[in-house]
Design a protein that fits this description.
The protein has 454 residues and is an alpha/beta fold. It is built from 15 helices and 12 strands. 39% of the residues lie in helices and 14% in strands. The longest helix is centred in the middle third of the chain and has 25 residues, at 204-228.
């Protein structure tokens, strides 16, 4: 495998607005959300605490001091929210299920009200002609499992497979696509080593153990799901940050290779190759996870799709150099659409990758409501450039089958609380009004354009 380098030509934006005809027949346009970020109703109908409820109660963890208690109140407003998704003209809705609604203690007894909620939601999608793309774990682990070690405890992998089985047994193939995990880098490294996400630990050994158990849980869940929903598409969603050395110096190249290994290859290679990257394994010394015989075979399950979340690249410089002329979103993330083309090309050329979906891509900017809308020109440009980047990859032969904008609406942005807005739809948290932004109208025009002939 080679460290990614920029392809020689910058992405040329199309001179006219993109339409469906610019993408392959059957290409899915969608929008994405996750349970904890939008649902609220954290203690209704039998749901118990997740690690994020606990984390939000710890002083200083969330920058604006808020929590997911109400969020977008989607638990109560889901019919209107699905109407909104439908009004965008998209094909698909990517959502996640809250494990603590379904198994409030993370094991054993199932809470029927939790399953009922997601069944209504899925049926609500189908009745509106929307294809349900479910994610089983988007970070809201039942607190009861954290109390016995969370993902650092190998048993959590088995509990996750059991939970996946319960969900699929109820929702079946009405859900067309099941992703096991969303962004395991975040639920391990960011959460157990960097301390920025729940449970807020700073322990590299625990983080690598959590990462291994997440991947193991993924493999066990895929096996369980295959037996219950053989016709559904099964996969996993990873967040990628392709790394680019600032210069051709050996120091920058080595640093970029290392960052690529820790961020991207550490998760990708066990899944697709059945092994951890040897260079990074060695560099982790005694912090490496305890691997049992058969674990890597379990982790490397045949997949129907790989979900690719892309927001920005890593620009790696041993001397702290910054990219020239770069622009940044409110997250401080560089806007670099070319990275998405490069990433998709690399995944399809260097790995035995299954068909891919861009399962998240989007940008936070400081929106202001102006009259009946939000003029979020920068977000429109961000989406246009990244969709163009997807088109470029597709033109170069990458099997990319869909794109999900992050996010349907503004929501709880984890450690940033409500201070970062990613939505196509503006949410006024004071009264839960939803207002379509210019970016929402832009995406609607694309999704509503005429589809190419199959
Ligand atoms: O909001 C998150 C989402 O939950 C996971 N991927 C990145 C998004 C933006 O930070």
């Amino acid at each position: 495998m080679t460290t990614i380098q920029g392809t020689p030509h910058a992405t040329q934006p199309a001179s006219r607005p993109l339409t469906r005809a610019d993408f392959p027949a059957g290409f899915q346009f969608g929008v994405a959300t996750s349970s904890f970020q939008i649902e609220g109703a954290t203690h209704e109908d039998g749901r118990k605490d997740s690690i994020w409820d606990t984390f939000c109660r710890e002083p200083g963890r969330i920058s604006d001091g808020t929590s997911g208690e109400v969020a977008c109140d989607h638990y109560h407003r889901w019919p209107q929210d699905l109407d909104l998704v439908h009004s965008l003209g998209v094909d698909a809705y990517r959502f996640s299920l809250a494990w603590p609604r379904i198994q409030p203690d993370g094991r054993g007894a199932v809470n029927p009200a939790g399953l009922d909620f997601y069944e209504r939601l899925v049926d609500g999608m189908l009745s509106r002609g929307l294809r349900p793309y479910a994610t089983l774990y988007h970070w809201d682990l039942p607190q009861a499992l954290q109390d016995v070690g969370g993902w650092d405890n190998r048993d959590t992998a088995h509990r996750f497979a059991e939970y996946a089985h319960i969900v699929a047994a109820r929702l079946g193939e009405r859900v067309v696509s099941y992703a096991t995990l969303n962004e395991p880098w975040c639920s391990s490294i960011l959460s157990y080593q960097l301390g920025q996400h729940a449970p807020g630990l700073q322990d590299r050994r625990a983080a690598l153990s959590a990462a291994h158990h997440l991947l193991l849980g993924h493999g066990e869940a895929v096996r369980a799901l295959r037996s219950v929903v053989p016709g559904a598409e099964l996969g996993i969603v990873l967040n990628f940050s392709p790394t680019y050395p600032a210069t051709g110096s050996p120091e920058d190249r080595a640093a970029a290779r290392r960052e690529d290994g820790e961020f991207n290859r550490w998760f990708l290679e066990p899944l697709l190759l059945g092994q951890y990257p040897a260079d990074i394994w060695q560099s982790y010394g005694t912090d490496v996870p305890d691997i049992h015989p058969g674990d890597l075979e379990t982790i490397r399950q045949p997949l129907d799709f790989l979900g690719v979340n892309y927001y920005t690249r890593g620009f790696v410089s041993a001397s702290g150099q910054k990219p020239a002329g770069a622009s940044y979103t409110q997250m401080g993330w560089e806007v670099f659409p070319q990275g998405l083309t490069d990433l998709l090309l690399r995944l399809s050329r260097d790995y035995p990758a299954p068909p891919m979906f861009v399962t998240e891509n989007g940008a936070a900017y400081p929106d202001t409501l102006s009259g009946e809308t939000v003029h979020d020109t920068e977000r429109v440009q961000y989406f246009a450039a990244h969709l163009e980047a997807v088109r470029q990859a597709s033109l170069q032969g990458v099997d990319v089958r869909g794109y999900f904008a992050w996010s349907l609406m503004d929501n709880f942005e984890w450690a940033y609380g409500y201070s970062r807005r990613f939505g196509l739809v503006y949410v006024d948290y004071a009264d839960q009004t939803r207002v379509l932004k210019d970016s929402g109208r832009w995406y609607q025009a694309l999704a509503s354009s005429e589809a190419p002939n199959p």
